[in-house]
Amino acid sequence: MRKRLALLVVATTSLVTLAFLIPLALLVQMVAEYRAVSAATLRAESLVSVVAASDRSTVGLTVDQVSAGNGAEVTVFWSDGTQAGPARPNAAVELGLAGRSFSVDTANGRQVLVSVQGAPDGPALIAAFVTDHDLHRGVLHAWLILTGLGLLLIGAGVLVADRLAHSMVRPITELSRVSLRLSRGDLSARATPAGPSEIRDVATALNHLAERIRQLLREERESAADLSHRLRTPLTALRLDAEALPAGPDGDRIRDDVDRLERAVSRVIAETRRPDEPAAGCEAGRIVRTRLDFWSALAEDTDRRMSVDLPDAPITVALPADELEAAVDALLGNVFAHTPDGTAFAVKLRRDTSGVRLEVSDDGPGFATDPDALLDRGTGGKGSSGLGLDIARSAAVRVGGELQLGSSPTGGAQVTLTFPIPEQVSASSNPPPLGPTG
C-alpha cells in the first residue's frame, strides 16, 4: 500500500510539475533571447548618430571599438556597396538599405538591422549579429535549476505521502498480526486503536470479537466441566457394579473399560480447567496395537480379515494416549458400523519426513457422499451422528496434524491421520488453531 501511494504521488506530482516547469522553461528561453536581441538593438542604435553625422573613417574606428567589446558584432553597410565591419552582405542587408529596420534569424544566430537615413554619404544600414551562444546564455543553467526544483518537489511529495501511508499501514499491519494471533489461539491478543477513524473502528470491533470469543470458550469449557462432573455419579455407580462382578475375563474387561471411561472424563475436566496445557506425547505403535487387540475379537466374530502393518521401532506422536485411543476407536468403529460383515480392513502406521501417518482402509463400498461433507458435525448420513470422523480430526488438528479422506486400493474408504512428531511441535512457533473443546 505504501508503494502504491508513493507511485501515485510521483505520477501526480510529476504531471503537475511538468505542467508548470515546461512553460516556465520556454519562458526562460524567450526572455534570454529577448534580452540578447534587445542588447544588440541598443548597440546598433547607439551608432545611428555617429553614422549619420561622421565620415566613413570615423565610423570605421567606432565600429571597431564597439565590436572589440563583449556583445553583438556590429557592421555598417552603405548604399554604394562599401562597409565597415566583418559581416557579409545578404538579401536582408539589401532590404535594410531600402529603409527598413528589422531582425532576421540566420544559420548561426540572429541579425538585427537598423536603417540610417540622411547620412552624408547616402543611406546606410547598421547590422548587429547575435550568436546562438549569446541568445541562449544562462538558459541551460536556469533549466538545471528548474529541474532540480522539480525533483525536490517530487521527492518532498513522496516523503510526505510515505509518512502518511505509514500512519495508515502501521495500524493495519498491527490488525493483521492480532488477527493471526487470535487464529492461532492467543485470545489475549488485542489491537491498539490508531490511525484513521475507520481503522480505529475496525480495531475496536476486533477487540470486541476477541473478547466475545474468549467469553464463549469460557462458557463452553464450564459447560463441559459441569457435564463431566455430572457423569461422576453414574460412573461411580458403574464402577461399584463392575467391582461386584466375579473375577474372570469378562469382569476384567468391563473393569478396564470403566477405568478408561473414568480417565477420559477426568481428562475432559482437566482440559477444561487448563486449556493451555501443552499436549503430552505417547508411543503410537503401542496404542494402536492395544486397540487392535481390543477390536480383533469383534472382527473375528463378524468374519473380517484384519491386516496390520505396524513398525517394530517405537513411534512417538505429540498427542495424549487417551486421545489417540479415542481417535483409533472412532476410525475402527466406523469400519464396523458402515461396512457389512465379512469386509476386510487394514491398519497401517508409518513415519516419514512429514510426521506420523495412520491409515485405516477397508474393502467396503467407500464413501456414499462427498467425503468433505462427512467432516461436518451432524452430517454423517443416515444412522450416523457424524462425530466419529470429527473426533479423529480434532485429535489430529489439536497438535497441528490433519485428517484426509480418500479411496483404498480396492475401492473402499480410506482415512489417513497425520500427526507431527514431538520435535516438530516444540520447534513450531505457531500454536494449533482453535478447535472444539472437550
Short overview:
The protein is of the alpha+beta class.
How is this structure best described in words?
- The chain contains 12 helices and 12 strands.
- With 438 residues, the chain is of the alpha+beta class.
- Among the domains are: 2-140, 2-Layer Sandwich (Beta-Lactamase), CATH 3.30.450; 278-427, 2-Layer Sandwich (Heat Shock Protein 90).
- A 5-stranded antiparallel beta sheet has the order 2-1-5-4-3, with helices on both faces. A 5-stranded mixed beta sheet has the order 7-9-10-12-11. Strands 6-8 form a two-stranded antiparallel ribbon.
- The longest helix has 47 residues, at 197-243.
- It catalyses: ATP + protein L-histidine = ADP + protein N-phospho-L-histidine.
Low-confidence stretches: 377-385, 424-438
Per CATH, what is the topology of the domain at 278-427? Heat Shock Protein 90
Helix content: 55-70%
- The CATH H-level superfamily of the domain at 278-427 is Histidine kinase-like ATPase, C-terminal domain
